[in-house]
Each structure stands twice: as structure tokens, then as C-alpha cells.
Amino acid sequence: MRHYFFLLVLFLAFIQCKESEGSANLNTSEQNSIQHAEGFSIEKYEGFSVVKVTNAYPEAKNDYTYILHKKGIQIPDSLQQFTSIEVPIKKVIVTSTTHIPALESLGVENTLIGFPTTQYISSEKTRALIDAGKVRDLGSNQGLNTEVILDIQPDLIVGFSVDGDLKTYKNLEKNSQKIIFNGDWTEKTPLGKAEWIKFFGALYDLDDKATEIFNSIEKEYNSVLTLAKNAKKQPTIFAGAIYEDQWFLPQGDSWAAYFLKEANGNYLWKDSKGTGSLALSFESVLDKAKDADFWIGPGQFGSIQEILNSNPNYIHFKAVENKNVYSFSTKKGKTGGVIYYELAQNRPDLVLKDIVKILHPEVLPNHELFFFEKLK
């Protein structure tokens, strides 16, 4: 009898051990470590993480919760209602060029198998994968090619929405595709946008590497910020360009305006409210900015002569007359994509260095402009 009792004890202990190996523990939470980004959080548990995206698009009414778990982990019943994703993922579709630098920084660009309108991608690494036929073109973001997606069978689609129109994604979910929303572009601060690399780090079970990359960017950014604050002058700046008879320039709470403030510049529309664009007449901008020191981000203009050819009245801006006009639109990838649009939000330290170099060249004497170029 004792022999059977002993075997029973061993059997029960074995079963308990197996259950602990495959079950997720809800009592070992690690606090959310996201500091700058407001649109997502990551809470770690034993064997899995809970990722919450709280601002997938502007004025989003719904939060999205995802369970990222390692192979063989049994998710607690209370979390079964949420989309579960086995990590690390091995095949991914992303839908914004801003996702590409995160994949490359983590060294997982080879997992990319599909992208909408691949011609917009500028990165040489990923372009090589496209040219080799390893990344399929999925059409437009508004109408992702379901047939191709079902053919290549990704582990996950990283989607984003500008206005909350999710019809395409809901249709893909009906076809058993897993979707996770990324709202990096809705963040209001440069470091908030850059911290979304931790979102991708979680998908690839590379949390430590993602944190290390972000911490390095944050350190560089704050170092340049300190230098800028000590600059003696605060040059005046205007921005934007004419489009269909309206001059569109960044509102005072926008990401672009935030950089100008961080670089210790006096952006002339810094007091305007909103995170989008102001639409003004040429005359009103000229009236306020004719004596401004710098014009930063003049749309698609590639030279001072192009500016004057479009409208001779631009010569009345002191920044044009003195050739203090700087653009990021001149630096493009092989297929015409603007590198700034792809990489800038992932590398705010480089953006800030550029703007500080433009406004306060004495502060960063050895820095060569990375995104921006002085128009000739």
C-alpha cells in the first residue's frame, strides 16, 4: 500500500510540474516599462506579455489587447478573449514605412514577407529583399490584397489606421489572419514615437535588445537637448510650403514644431493649438515671417531657384535671400521615397542633431547633416 501511495505522490508531483511548465502565471507581473509613449503598454508575466494599444488612431474609442506568449504556454482563461500571438514571430507583414527601421534595428528584416506599395520603402537593406522577390507587394493600405496575404500566410499583420476605417483588417480577421495595431505615428513627442521599437521587440522576444537600442537613442537625444538649451541665441523659424494656393505649416503642438522648440528655436507659430497643420495665405505668412532667420522644411522644393521660379515673391523672405532654407525632401531612396518619412520617427536623436546644427552650428561643430540639406 505504501508503495502505491508513494507512486501516487510522484505522479501528482509530475503532473503539477508539467502544469507549471505549460501554464501562465498571472501573479508574477512586471510593471509596464514604457516611459515616453502614451499609446501602448507592455506588462510581463511568466511565459507571456500583455500588450495594450490605447491609441491606435486619432480619437480611437476602443483599446486593443494582445497576449504575446511563448510556444507551449497555456493562456489563463481570463485572457482567452484576446488575440494571442506566439512569439517570436517568424513571418510578418507591416503596413507603414516607419515600421521598417524597427525591424532592421532589431536585425529581423528577413522576416518581412509583404508590404503595401513597396516602392515607398527607401532602406537599402529592405529594398534588396524586395528586389530578390522576398517581400510581396500587397497593393494599397486601403485595399490590401487578401489573395496574396492568404497565399504567403504571415504569422502576423502589423496594421495601422489613419481614420478608424478597419474594414480591410476585419475582412482579413474573418480569413483567420492575426492583426495587431500600431499607433506609433499618433505619439506627440519624438521619444514617444521612438519608444515603439519596444512594441516590435516584444513581438520578436527581443525586449532587452529593443530597450538597449531605445536607451541609446534617448541618451543621445537628451545630450543634444542639453547643448541646445545652452545656446545663446534663439533664431526665428517658419516652415511648410504652398499647396493648391494654401500655405500649410505645422501647428504649435505638432511633432515638427516640438523639434524646433527642443532645438531652442523660435518657431513663429509655436502658440497655435493643435497637432496638425495650419492652412494660411501666402500674404499672411510673408507678413509674419519675412524677417525670420530660417525656413525649415519647404515642401518638395529642391533649390532656391525652384522656389523663386514658382513665385518670385519668395525673395521677400530674408531666409530665401540669405539662402537659409533647409529641406529633408531632397534625400531619397532608390525608388523615390523620402528617407525622412521612413526613418525620422525612429531616430529623433538624428533629427534633433540636424536642427541644432542648423540653428546653432557652434554647438555641434563636427556633426554632418543626416536628414536635412541646405538648398543652393
List keywords for this structure.
376 residues, alpha/beta, 14 helices, disordered N terminus
Protein topology:
Elements: H1 2-22, E1 25-30, E2 40-46, E3 48-53, E4 64-69, E5 83-86, E6 92-94, H2 100-106, E7 112-115, H3 124-131, E8 136-137, E9 139-140, E10 143-144, H4 146-152, E11 156-159, H5 167-174, E12 179-181, H6 190-194, H7 197-203, H8 207-229, E13 236-239, E14 241-243, E15 246-250, H9 255-262, E16 266-267, E17 277-280, H10 282-289, E18 294-296, H11 304-310, H12 318-321, E19 325-327, H13 339-343, H14 348-359, E20 373-374
Parallel strand pairs: 4-5, 6-7, 6-11, 7-8, 11-12, 13-16, 13-18, 18-19
Antiparallel strand pairs: 1-2, 2-3, 3-4, 9-10, 14-15, 15-17, 19-20
Distance between the termini: 95 Å
Percent helix range:
25-40%
| Overall strand count | 20
Strand order of the largest sheet: 1-2-3-4-5
Strand content bin: 15-25%
Number of helices: 14
Regions with pLDDT < 50 over 5+ consecutive residues?
Answer: 1-21
Radius of gyration: 25 Å
Task: Sum up the overall morphology in one term.
Answer: globular
How would a crystallographer describe the biggest sheet?
5 strands, mixed
Oligomer: single chain
Mean pLDDT: 92
Summarize the structure.
The chain is α/β, with parallel strands linked by helices and 376 residues long. It has helices at 2-22, 100-106, 124-131, 146-152, 167-174, 190-194, 197-203, 207-229, 255-262, 282-289, 304-310, 318-321, 339-343, 348-359, and strands spanning 25-30, 40-46, 48-53, 64-69, 83-86, 92-94, 112-115, 136-137, 139-140, 143-144, 156-159, 179-181, 236-239, 241-243, 246-250, 266-267, 277-280, 294-296, 325-327, 373-374. The chain starts with a helix and ends with a strand.
